[in-house]
Amino acid sequence: MKNIFLLLLFIPLIGISQVKNVISTNRVFPKVDKVLEFEKALATHAQKYHTGDVKWRVFQIQSGPDAGGYHIVEGPKSWESEDTRGDINVAHNNDWHKSVMIYLTDRNSSGYSVYIDSLSTVAVGDFSDKVQVTHLFPKPGCGGKLSTMIKNLRKAWAADGVSIAVYESNGSGAPQFALARRYKQGLKEKTEGYRKPFVETYEKIHGKGSWSIFNDNVREYLNEQWSELIFLRADLSSK
Known about the structure:
The chain is of the alpha+beta class and 239 residues long. The protein has helices at residues 2-17, 35-49, 79-85, 90-100, 143-160, 198-206, 210-221; strands at residues 22-30, 56-61, 70-77, 104-115, 130-138, 164-169, 177-182, 222-232. An eight-stranded antiparallel beta barrel has the order 1-3-2-8-5-7-6-4, surrounded by four helices. Strand 2 (56-61) and strand 3 form a beta hairpin. Helix 2 (35-49) runs antiparallel to helix 4.
C-alpha cells in the first residue's frame, strides 16, 4: 500500500517532465536540377526512419525569403526524449548523408522552438495543411514586452475564431516568437470580408485607440518581422 501511495505521488511529476511541446525544425534547399530526386529520397527517408516522437511533417515554403526551400518539422516531443534521441542510429545517418544530402545546396538552418499554450488559440497537435508563419524578433531585453503584446492579440484571435499556435525559439540564434496561423478552411480565410476587420475586434476588447498603442509598441519593442506561407507535403512526410 505504501509503495502504491509513493507511485501516485510521482505521477504528476512524470506528467510534467514529459510534456510534448518542443519541435525541432530543419530548412533545406535542393539543387535546382535535383528537386525530383531530392523529394523521392526525402520521402523514403522520412517514412523509414521517422516515427513516434521523431515523426516528420514536411512543408514546402511558398513565399518569403526562403521560398523554394523545404521546412521539416520534427515533433512535438519532450526535452527528455531529445536527450535520448541522438542521431537515431547509424543506418539513419548513412541514409541521410548518402541518399538525401547529395541533392542539397549548402544553404540550411536548424533550430528548436517551444509551443506556448498561454499565447496560442489552437492545440499544439491540431495541425492544418496551409500555414502562414510570422517571425517576430524582439529588441534586446524586450522579450517580455512582446509576450504581453501577443497575449493581447490572443484575446482578439480567440474572439474571431482564428487558429494560431505560438512558438518561442530556444537555444537557436536570435530570440524569436513564431506565430503559426493555421488556415483550417484553406487560404480562403485570407479573403477580404471572410472575417470582420481585426482592428475592430481588437479595439472592442482593449478599448478605442488600443490598436494605435499596439503599433506604437511594435515600433518600440520589435527589431524585425517577416512572414511566409508554407504548405504541407503529406507525400514527403512520415506516415
